[in-house]
Specification:
The structure is a single chain. The protein is built from eleven helices and 14 strands. The protein is of the alpha/beta class. The protein has a single domain, classed as Ribonuclease Z/Hydroxyacylglutathione hydrolase-like (Metallo-beta-lactamase, Chain A). The strands form two sheets. The protein has a seven-stranded mixed beta sheet with strand order 6-5-4-3-2-1-14. It has a seven-stranded mixed beta sheet with strand order 7-8-9-10-11-12-13. Helix 9 packs parallel to helix 11. It is globular and about 60 Å long. Keywords: Hydrolase. This is Ribonuclease Z.
């Protein structure tokens, strides 16, 4: 199994990181995409993966930084001669999201123009996703992979359900948190996993700042919390990801983040603090994700 970290950033446009997207490729050559934030499709091409070969997309929740590249992924796959419909798994509301995109939605003009060409008519199903809204439990299984999803704690369910996942393929287990604060479901999903890929959006001081100011959700996992989860779950290795721009030196991001983050604390030095705090509770193999990082299991 190969894991490619296509995007490792969060909600703001970051010059150094794309938004959330992880590609899992099995030994048999099948590809499964978990989240589809900005840049995911382009990053696949950079990683020498044809987006048209990705058969399934799983959206952990419907925040824009986890879904914004999905229409580009579908239309690009169509233009790259995908055959059949891509499967789209996601929480309640995913059908509404997908139904407002293509032939009856935002990209209707593009759909009508391209579908007039015979070669596009021949693969019209490529731009008609097979959308399946999920409930907790085993949500997908084929000859190569088994995906189990559980609710995690990020947003109120009346706004949007949020899921973490456990992926079993090629005799290995990978758990992915989506976005969440520490919760028992992630410990269950990551139990004895070969790899835990977990959000580490902000250091604790940044989470505390957001909770105090009331700007944006603060239901995220700090490095200390991630270490506790990994230790309790007995995860064999950990990749921290979904970094919330706290390490950025971009003047644009610092100005934009002034109401959201304690910008006077921002900078690459905080990555050392991230490692230090994770290590207080977890001593196993640890990596900090970057875009296009490849992990072989």
């Amino acid at each position: 199994m190969k894991i490619t970290m296509l995007g490792t950033g969060a909600a703001l446009p970051d010059p150094d990181r794309g938004q959330s997207a992880i590609l899992i490729s099995t030994d048999a050559g099948k590809h499964y995409l978990f989240d589809c934030g900005e840049g995911a499709t382009r990053q696949m091409v950079r990683a020498n993966i044809n987006p048209a070969d990705v058969g399934l997309v799983f959206l952990t929740h419907l925040h824009h930084d986890h879904i914004s590249d999905f229409p580009y992924f579908v239309i690009s796959s169509w233009m790259l001669n995908r055959t059949g419909s891509p499967i789209l798994l996601g929480p309640k509301g995913t059908k509404n999201f997908a139904n407002h995109l293509f032939e009856d939605g935002a990209f209707r003009a593009d759909f009508l123009a391209r579908s007039a060409y015979p070669v596009r008519k021949d693969n019209i199903e490529a731009v008609r996703p097979d959308v399946r809204e999920i409930v907790p439990g085993v949500v997908y299984e084929d000859s190569d992979i088994r995906i189990t999803a559980l609710h995690v704690d990020h947003l109120p369910h009346e706004i949007c359900e949020c899921y973490g996942v456990r992926v079993e393929a090629d005799g290995k287990v990978v758990a992915f948190s989506g976005d969440t604060k520490p919760c028992p479901a992630m410990v269950e999903l990551a139990r004895d996993a070969d790899l835990l890929i977990h959000e580490c959006t902000f250091p604790q001081s940044f989470i505390d700042h957001r909770a105090k100011t009331g700007v944006g959700t603060y239901s995220h996992t700090s490095p200390l919390g991630l270490g506790l989860i990994a230790n309790e779950a007995r995860a064999k290795s950990v990749v921290a990801t979904h970094f919330g721009h706290f390490d950025s030196t971009s003047p644009v991001l610092k100005r934009a983040a002034a109401k959201h983050l304690p910008v006077e604390l921002m900078g690459p030095h905080l990555m050392e603090d991230v490692v230090r705090d994770i290590r207080k509770n977890y001593q196993g193999p640890l990596r900090l994700a970057h875009d296009l990082m490849r992990i072989d299991l």
